[in-house]
Design brief:
With 109 residues, the protein is α+β, with helices and mostly antiparallel strands. The protein has helices at 44-50, 55-67, 75-80, 89-102; strands at residues 2-7, 13-18, 23-24, 30-31. The chain has one domain (2-102). 37% of the residues lie in helices and 15% in strands.
Length: 109
Amino acid sequence: MFNVAEHSSSSPRLTITSNRHSIQNSKGGSDAAFPWCRTTPETIEHFLLHCPCFHSHHTALCSQLSALAITTLDLPTLLVASGTHLSCQPALLSLTCTFLRKTDQLPRQ
């Protein structure tokens, strides 16, 4: 699970930090691979942008961002609304939080 903090200030942003999971492999050792797909190192970028386990959530997020005319899907855009118009920033961060809630990485309020 990732630690997520929503900031309420004049410059909206999310802070996400990863908790390393120690996954036991078949030889009894631990493995730092992502806990869902187990083929890629656990990073926030992999989780938010690439993990095939959350493909349907990624697709929905991309569609919703497209409706806001946001075509850049990268960490600065999703976490701090970098490069987006000021009027779109709250909606973008809300969509990122919704993605995190749907993937059980952000507690439901």
